[in-house]
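Input chain follows. Return structure tokens only.
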Amino acid sequence: MKEIEPERFIEHIICLKKFALVLTHDVDTAAGLEKSQTLMELEDNLEFKSSFNFVPERYKVPEALRHLLVNRGMVLLNTHPDYMNFNFGPIRNEEYPADYYIYFLKHIKEKYKGRYWHVLPKEISTFWKKQN
């Protein structure tokens, strides 16, 4: 295969629209939280959007930042069942109650009813295939 310049390769792929680009950020610590808005602004300047994964109960996410993220359509929840406690015993270090996840889902379902697309990756793929 002939080697091509990175810029031409990227142009070629984008023109074909054969992939989706999803940018996510795991915010594991309060220090990462403090940098989140700066990272968001960096991406804005380059005309990108991403989602941020916050760790429940490890630090407090300021309401203003939560509002900014939600209103920009940047909600992605990536849970780790290995850190959830489903009442199988006392909550261990690094665990959180599964009730937090239940609360989140109910909140989304009630407050944002009809305003979100709950979609699986295969459904996105099918949607875009039909667009061509």
